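User: Structure tokens for both sequences below?

Assistant:
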Amino acid sequence: MIDESKPIFVQIAEQIEDDIISGSLSEESQVPSTNEFAAFYRINPATAGKGVNRLVDDGILYKKRGIGMFVAQGAQARLVQVRKDRFRDEFVRPLIAEAAKLGINPDQLSEMISTEGVPA
């Protein structure tokens, strides 16, 4: 399950984000501890902590002293918006730029996308 192309702490943060976006981890629910992540992935707890702390710094998780980490209110909406913005920047804008180079107008591009979305 570990992807060698990116740091493990990033993968842990992304897994938590994915679980929040999908609803597997709801707002105000407790996330697994760094020790649980460390045991599951067979990594150093400090590495797991780095991934969790990244989300704390972003306001996605918060700490209840002596209890653990929890999903913050509004975390799902914030994560969805961040991912939408990233999707636009990484995929949509380059797609539009390439379509313009090829002389594909917006209507043609929309038709191409609609056609690709239809199962065979």
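Moving on to the next sequence.
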Amino acid sequence: MVAPRAGSKIQIHSYKHDGNLHRVWENSLVLKGTEMIVIGANDKTLVTESDGRTWYTREPAICYFHAKHWFNVIGMLRDDGIYYYCNISSPFVFDDEALKYIDYDLDLKIYPDMTFDLLDEDEYEIHKIEMNYPVVLDRILYNNIEYLKRWVTQRKGPFSPGFVDQWYERFLTYRF
């Protein structure tokens, strides 16, 4: 697999299990790009939904993608602390067009005090039936939710103290 180059701008494409494009983020800056890990950043980035609606992200965010884990992590820098939004998803792939993953609806929202909520289980159950998710996929996704929760409680990876702040400081060096 090819890796995006640090300092380059890429799009991020989210798909659904049936192959339909779900969401596109424009102009994310790659801060670290290897075949295994991509760390990116964006701020006030244009997002296009599958139905054509558009919106802009409200705050700076550091995005963490891994080629082996079934989740990605977005650390959003807000006035009252860092909030994390974790998409339960396929591992990423990168090609000349974009960084891509399949979004499986389930999300873990993590607050600055490191408490968290699992979101969108109802949406997941509907899509699991509609798109005929295999039983093994269900097990993989729920196992990765537990793995992700352990990362949060152990402050590992993108949840480690200073991770988001360090990468945000690097992001600022590219912007000014």
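User: Anything stand out in the second?

Assistant: The helical segments are 121-130, 135-154, 163-175.
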